[in-house]
Amino acid sequence: MADAPPRIITVLDFRRRRMAVRWNIDAHAGTSHEEATARAHGVALIRPAQPSVCVYAQGGELHLQIGERLIYLRLNEPRVLTEPKLISAGLRREFRVEDGAGATLYRERYWTGKGPDFFRTLAEHCARPQWRSDSARTWSDGVDPGELRQSWAG
Fold it and tell me: Are the C-beta atoms of residues 64 and 82 closer than 8 Å to each other?
């Protein structure tokens, strides 16, 4: 019988670039991990007042977890988008995940801050099928945290 994939993986904290997070897939939450890590499997956005978000790879598949919702990021779908809301002078954005037929799987409106924008970075990466394919493969095995930080630099 094959071993079950681990339910707790190490990912990077998007806001605190030098911090690793132990992401619990079942609890859909992360806890800080202050020890140096040799391998990371994704990137998490930890939010105290809203569901945390994590994009990670496991078993050769790329996943987007937003709270309890788990979405598989295949080669060309679902579409991951961010759009500015014109009324807010671009400070308010909408993040959306749509299936192949255009139905909304997830939507969230948010205010952009002065720092890097996790949702916008994710949407830009997901627009490239090659990034999805490469990330699913390499992140599953674990990637050097420095390389992962560099690729997610905002």
Answer: no
pLDDT (tens digit, 9 = 90+) per residue, 80-123? 999 987 776 668 899 999 999 999 999 999 988 777 899 999 99
Q: How far apart are CA 65 and CA 73, in angstroms?
A: 10
| 8-13 and 42-45 strand pairing | parallel
53: tokens are 């978000």
Cα four-point dihedral sign 99, 70, 150, 94: positive
Asked whether 53 and 28 are in contact (CB, 8 A), the reply is no
Single out the residue of 29, 105, 11, 96 nearest to residue 67, CA to CA: 29
- Rounded Cα distance, 1 and 127, in Å: 37
128 with 111: CB under 8 angstroms? no
Tokens read off for 52: 């945390």
